[in-house]
Amino acid sequence: MRTKLLLLVSILFISVSFAANNEDIWGSTGHRATGKIAEKHLTKRAKKKIEKLLQGESLAFVSTYADEIKSDRKKYGKFYTWHYVNMPLDTRYEDTEKNPDGDLVTGIGECVKVLKDASSSVEDKRFYLKMLIHLIGDLHQPMHIGQKEDKGGNTIQVQWHGKGSNLHRVWDENLIDKYDMSYIELAENAKNLSKEQIKVIQKGSVIDWLQDTHQLTKEVYKSAEAGENLRYRYSYVYFPVVREQLQKGGLRLAKLLNEIFD
Description:
By secondary structure, the protein is mainly α. The protein has a single domain, classed as P1 Nuclease (Orthogonal Bundle). It has 13 helices and 3 strands. A 3-stranded mixed sheet has the order 2-1-3. The longest helix has 30 residues. It comes from Tenacibaculum caenipelagi.
């Protein structure tokens, strides 16, 4: 009995630790798809400057950099809060209590500021460009704009096809991984949009884009009950939404980069 109890406690500890360390990560496939989509919509001038700054590495390749550096908390810990915004479901960003350590909006703003500053070093510009590419992806994952009390859905435990997960992870990784497409396949199969449709998506500011995602956040919170086993029906309803968010992120990232580098 004692052995079983210790095993149960160990499993619980591992699960909680994983959830804590897995906060705020739009899965790597999603980030890379967003980067790939953005590349298709860069101007020639912006693309050339970005390729030089990234030393030939693609937007897709560097899109996961901001998550990779999380493992070095001592050096990069100050950037941790940049991956998300905690806000109640019934408020707008401008009316919320701001995190004194910064958030997704202020992080994006700082990246843009450094990249536009002619006095910024090449090293700083390269670093903050990688951060910006990632953060715009995060901006379009609805659970990155979630409630503080449940850590953006990380503490809302659900099952994914009979296996333990949480609502945040379902949207970060499970929905995309279950579809089993590479980031290139996801990008190449993005919806065909007219120039006018693209302009509508790209219109507005970063805060406007956040509010757009937050409308979806409200829907996601209603989409599942704690402990519910989410299966094929959930994918059928929400994977098209994920694809739309990846495309929006790519198009808006391209707009922002064109404004900075063109």
